[in-house]
Amino acid sequence: MPIKTLHIPTADGQADAFAAFPDGGERHPGVLMYADGFGIRPVLRELAHELAGHGYYVLVPNPFYRHGPAPVIALPEHIGDEVRPAIFAQLMPLIEAHTTDRILSDADAYLRFLTTQPEVGAGPVAVTGYCIGGLPAMRTAAAHPNQVAAVAAFHGPVGVDGPELFSKLTAQVHLGHAEGDMTPEALGELNRALDAAGVGYTSEIYPDTIHGFTMSDTDAFNPAALQRHWDRLLPLLDRTLAGR
Length: 244
Prior knowledge:
Blueprint: E1 3-10, E2 13-20, E3 30-34, H1 42-52, E4 57-61, H2 84-97, H3 100-114, E5 125-130, H4 134-143, E6 148-154, H5 162-166, E7 172-178, H6 184-196, E8 201-206, H7 223-240
Parallel strand pairs: 3-4, 3-5, 5-6, 6-7, 7-8
Antiparallel strand pairs: 1-2, 2-4
């Protein structure tokens, strides 16, 4: 299955990225995948490769391209709890520089690029996000209601923008929360806000999980929760994207 290195023109330069997609010359529904806070690395390629194997063209941009090509900072093969604080000390200035205006500007560029690739079919696309990528995923879907038919976010701070963002969503939504991030009371409040906005969604706490549960190169990894993530994501994409 091909993985292609790409450069996406943006308002601030060029974002390095990669795409995974099925071989064979056919066109496939497009999915924009936002990385977690550690950025592009082998585990993101694994996730994109797996999703592409189900018949999707998956585009994964480097969220920190303004600071250099991925990997922007050196990362160990396994990101354990003992090294996490030092890594985040380097990453936080990059994360804080990724403002709402930059997120929305980048989203315009990413979707424009994705929908014009020869391997991507006509019709709506989906957006997924992990960890801090969950919020850009939701903002992208809200800003592009006529293009984004589905959005999924996993262990991410998706409620930050609240009702103002939810009211703009037309996409079908799945939110998979870590048990360590979300109390049942907070989940109820979030879901009531989604109900009030008329969003079509599922939103649930994945049992026995902590933040980062999808990422196999971290101590947070939970194989059962990763499978649950696929069990929720794949049907969402199948029922919302054209040609499935």
